[in-house]
C-alpha cells in the first residue's frame, strides 16, 4: 500500500518534502466529494498509525458545491475520520487549492493524502490538477495520491439563476433589447451604425448579469437581428451576410457569456459566504447566551432551544443527574416519553460517555439519539435529539455542526459544576472558621 519511504503508490511528492529521519510527522487528509472520500480517510489513518503521529481530515467547501446535498459524501467521510481519531474541519474557500494552502500556512503538515480517480485515454497523461497547484504554490509536504477504481462523479450542474421564471427572464431580456433598439432608432440621425451597435452592450450585459447567460445570449441574438434590420443598409431588410453583423454577434455573444459566468461565480461565492456567516453568527450567539446564564435549568433550556433551531427543528431534550436519578431538565417542544429502547440508550450514553440511539452504531432502533456532554470532569449531561418523522435526526453534513454545539454545551455545564464546587468549598471554609 505504501512504499518504504511511507508514500502511497502513485504519489506525487513535492521536491522539498520534510521527510528527514526523526522529523515529527503530521498527516492531513484532503476530503472531497465522491467515491474516494472514505478511501482517503482510511489511508490517512493507516499512514498515521504507521508513523505513530497525529492526523487531521479537512474538507474545503467551495462555491461550486453550494447546494443542500453537495457535501454529504464529505461529511460522511469527516464523521468516519473523527471515529478513527482525527481532528476534522471544514474550510470555506474560493477553491480547494486556496483552502488547503491557507490551512497549511497555519498547520505543520508533512504529508497530504489526496484522492484521485483513475483516468483513461488522453487525460491519463495529464498530471492531477490539485497536487500540481499545491506544488506550484510552494507546499513542501509530501503529497500522496490515492487512486480509485471508480469513475469520477459527473460535475454537478450549476444552480440556475433565481428569477420569476425562465419565461419571464427571457421576456425581460428581450424587452430590454427592444427598448434599446427604440432608443437607438431615435438617435440614428446623429450617430453612425457602429455607434448605435455599441448601445446594445447595455441590454446584453444587463440581461446576462440579472438573469443568466442564456437570457443574455438571447438578448445578443435579438440585438444582432434588430441592428441588421433597422440600421444596416438597405434598411428594413435582413442581410445576415453583412460583415458588421457577424462582428457584432461575436462581440455581444462574448460579452453575454463572460458577464453571465462572472456574475454566476459571484452569486455562488456570496451564497457560500452568507451560509458560513449565518452559521458562525448562530454559533457565536449560542456561546454568548450560554455565558449569560448561571443556573443548570437555564443553561439546559438554551441548549435545547438553540440546538433545535440550528439543527432544523429537531426535538431536543437535556437529561442530567438530579439527586441520584436521571431527570429531564429541559425539552423542546415538550418533555418526551421514552420507549424502553430509548431509556436503555440514554443510560448507556450517561454511563459510558458514548453516543447511542437512532443514527448511531448502538441501539439504532431507538427513536432518539443521545449525545453525552463530556468534559474533563466526566459526563455532566446528555443531549437527546429526535426527528418527528422517525428518520435519523442528524444528517451526515450536520455532524460537524453538532460536534461544535456539543462542545460549547459541555463547556457551559463544566463551568456550572466548577462554580458549584467553588461555592461548596467556600461554604465549607466559612463553616469551619
TrEMBL record:
<feature type="transmembrane region" description="Helical">
    <location>
        <begin position="218"/>
        <end position="238"/>
    </location>
</feature>
<feature type="transmembrane region" description="Helical">
    <location>
        <begin position="193"/>
        <end position="211"/>
    </location>
</feature>
<dbReference type="Pfam" id="PF13493">
    <property type="entry name" value="DUF4118"/>
</dbReference>
<feature type="domain" description="Sensor protein KdpD transmembrane">
    <location>
        <begin position="170"/>
        <end position="271"/>
    </location>
</feature>
<keyword id="KW-1133">Transmembrane helix</keyword>
<keyword id="KW-0812">Transmembrane</keyword>
<keyword id="KW-0547">Nucleotide-binding</keyword>
<dbReference type="InterPro" id="IPR038318">
    <property type="entry name" value="KdpD_sf"/>
</dbReference>
<protein>
    <recommendedName>
        <fullName>Sensor protein KdpD transmembrane domain-containing protein</fullName>
    </recommendedName>
</protein>
<keyword id="KW-0418">Kinase</keyword>
<keyword id="KW-0808">Transferase</keyword>
<feature type="transmembrane region" description="Helical">
    <location>
        <begin position="244"/>
        <end position="263"/>
    </location>
</feature>
<keyword id="KW-0472">Membrane</keyword>
<keyword id="KW-0067">ATP-binding</keyword>
<keyword id="KW-0902">Two-component regulatory system</keyword>
<dbReference type="InterPro" id="IPR025201">
    <property type="entry name" value="KdpD_TM"/>
</dbReference>
<dbReference type="GO" id="GO:0000155">
    <property type="term" value="F:phosphorelay sensor kinase activity"/>
</dbReference>
<dbReference type="InterPro" id="IPR014729">
    <property type="entry name" value="Rossmann-like_a/b/a_fold"/>
</dbReference>
<dbReference type="InterPro" id="IPR052023">
    <property type="entry name" value="Histidine_kinase_KdpD"/>
</dbReference>
<keyword id="KW-0597">Phosphoprotein</keyword>
<dbReference type="InterPro" id="IPR029016">
    <property type="entry name" value="GAF-like_dom_sf"/>
</dbReference>
<dbReference type="GO" id="GO:0005886">
    <property type="term" value="C:plasma membrane"/>
</dbReference>
<dbReference type="GO" id="GO:0005524">
    <property type="term" value="F:ATP binding"/>
</dbReference>
Amino acid at each position: 500500500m505504501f512504499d518504504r519511504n511511507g508514500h502511497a503508490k502513485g504519489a506525487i511528492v513535492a521536491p522539498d518534502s520534510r521527510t528527514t529521519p526523526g522529523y515529527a510527522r503530521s498527516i492531513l487528509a484532503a476530503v472531497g466529494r465522491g467515491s474516494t472520500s472514505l478511501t482517503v480517510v482510511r489511508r490517512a489513518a493507516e499512514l498515521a498509525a504507521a508513523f505513530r503521529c497525529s492526523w487531521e481530515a479537512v474538507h474545503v467547501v467551495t462555491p461550486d458545491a453550494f447546494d443542500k446535498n453537495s457535501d454529504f459524501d464529505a461529511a460522511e467521510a469527516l464523521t468516519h475520520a473523527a471515529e478513527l481519531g482525527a481532528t476534522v474541519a471544514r474550510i470555506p474557500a474560493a477553491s480547494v487549492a486556496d483552502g488547503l494552502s491557507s490551512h497549511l500556512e497555519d498547520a505543520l503538515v508533512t504529508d497530504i493524502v489526496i484522492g484521485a480517480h483513475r483516468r483513461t485515454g488522453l487525460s491519463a497523461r495529464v498530471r492531477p490538477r490539485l497536487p500540481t497547484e499545491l506544488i506550484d504554490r510552494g507546499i513542501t509536504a509530501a503529497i500522496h495520491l490515492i487512486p480509485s477504481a471508480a469513475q469520477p462523479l459527473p460535475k454537478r450542474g450549476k444552480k440556475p439563476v433565481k428569477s420569476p421564471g425562465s419565461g419571464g427572464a427571457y421576456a425581460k431580456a428581450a424587452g430590454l433589447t427592444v427598448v434599446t433598439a427604440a432608443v437607438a432608432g431615435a438617435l440614428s440621425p446623429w450617430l453612425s451604425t457602429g455607434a448605435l451597435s455599441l448601445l446594445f452592450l447595455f441590454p446584453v450585459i444587463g440581461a446576462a448579469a440579472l438573469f443568466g447567460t442564456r437570457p443574455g445570449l438571447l438578448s445578443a441574438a435579438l440585438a444582432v437581428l434588430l441592428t441588421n434590420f433597422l440600421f444596416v443598409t438597405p434598411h428594413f431588410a435582413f442581410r445576415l451576410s453583412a460583415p458588421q453583423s457577424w462582428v457584432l454577434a461575436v462581440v455581444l455573444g462574448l460579452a453575454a457569456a463572460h458577464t453571465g459566468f462572472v456574475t454566476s461565480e459571484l452569486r455562488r461565492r456570496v451564497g457560500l459566504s452568507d451560509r458560513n456567516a449565518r452559521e458562525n453568527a448562530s454559533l457565536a450567539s449560542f456561546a454568548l447566551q450560554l455565558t449569560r446564564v448561571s443556573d443548570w435549568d437555564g443553561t439546559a433550556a438554551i441548549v435545547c432551544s438553540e440546538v433545535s433551531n440550528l439543527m432544523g427543528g429537531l426535538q431536543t431534550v437535556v437529561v442530567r443527574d438530579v439527586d441520584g436519578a436521571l431527570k429531564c431538565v429541559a425539552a423542546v417542544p415538550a418533555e418526551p416519553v421514552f420507549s424502553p429502547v430509548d431509556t436503555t440508550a440514554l443510560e448507556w450514553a450517561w454511563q459510558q460517555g458514548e453516543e447511542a440511539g437512532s443514527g448511531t452504531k448502538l441501539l439504532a432502533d431507538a427513536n432518539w439519539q443521545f449525545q453525552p456532554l463530556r468534559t474533563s470532569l466526566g459526563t455532566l449531561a446528555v443531549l437527546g435529539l429526535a426527528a418527528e418523522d422517525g428518520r435519523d435526526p442528524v444528517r451526515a453534513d450536520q455532524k460537524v455542526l453538532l460536534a461544535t454545539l456539543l462542545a460549547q454545551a459541555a463547556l457551559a455545564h463544566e463551568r456550572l459544576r466548577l462554580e458549584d464546587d467553588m461555592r461548596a468549598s467556600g461554604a465549607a471554609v466559612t463553616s469551619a472558621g
